[in-house]
Amino acid sequence: MDAGRKDIDALIDLMAKLPGLGPRSARRAVLHLIKKRERLMSPLADAMKSVAENARECVKCGNIGTGTICDICASEKRATGEICIVEDVADLWAMERAAVFRGRYHVLGGTLSALDAIGPEELRIPLLISRVRDEGVTEIILALNATIDGQTTAHYIADELAGACTVTSLAQGVPIGGELDYLDDGTITAALNARKGF
Amino acid sequence: MDAGRKDIDALIDLMAKLPGLGPRSARRAVLHLIKKRERLMSPLADAMKSVAENARECVKCGNIGTGTICDICASEKRATGEICIVEDVADLWAMERAAVFRGRYHVLGGTLSALDAIGPEELRIPLLISRVRDEGVTEIILALNATIDGQTTAHYIADELAGACTVTSLAQGVPIGGELDYLDDGTITAALNARKGF
Ligand SMILES: [Zn+2]
Ligand SMILES: [Zn+2]
Hints:
The structure is a homodimer of 198-residue chains. Chain A is of the alpha/beta class and 198 residues long.
């Protein structure tokens, strides 16, 4: 094998580490990229490099952006009194696609899990508690996945914030065992509008 | 949206153009990359850039490599008298994984197709005919997919080369309607060993 084939194999191995791609689909993807190396592969490499160098977590909410503070936290158009709690950035994106929530977010970075020894300190929970205290938050909307760990986490946060602000949760429309990022925009909208005291 | 989010959206759009990835799996892949930007995203961008800049088709056989001539065509260890005909590079890779064929290859770049107006000139068929004439080829092994277009192409090539050399084809083990790149190595080995006159 010459250096070229080794480079291609290295690329396939890296591609195969992406979620949803195995060795076979990674090979297919790489061949497709090589066929379209000027119109797809080079722009993709450049876009990836740029995002790798510039993307960072917002120090306030955990969203992905390029600055210290993300565009949502920095926007004056977003209500400061309402914070929507999500497990990860994919869920924040799903909420934003529904375009129904006009407040701000807080990305936990996962859920509490006794099995995986993930406690509040491993998540962005202490930061949430200081945000509620410091930012004049009046309502926390729990938009966690309807899984056991998601609901355990929701209860924990509701207990911690009891008395500090109103705590609601997405209600109608989230199927049992379902994950937010799989829902259509209409379902998310309905669930937000029908939110209830937690 | 700040510039960062626009960059991320552009990256997601490019990723969604890969075979097997839709918008949702592209979003998941990009978030995964951002989480692992130093250990996965940067190396992947670099590997992609390098392959985009260096990969090219072998002028002889159509395989992908970095030089004008690929490593297989350049190797003195590969028999010059036998050429295995495949539709595309994925099939060549599948044959190489089986590690049973020690000759050289010829990548057609597709199959004849009346429907898509693909004739011999659109494929690497004229080049094959001159290779057989110039390289002292004694046997052509047809390893085309068992599809209607694949078999039409096989018959066309067999007719063109009648009298010039022995023409065989992979036989036993290739399922009807099956594609080479989906087969396991053992099946490919059995099919090659049981090849018959075409
Ligand atoms: Zn933020
Ligand atoms: Zn070659």
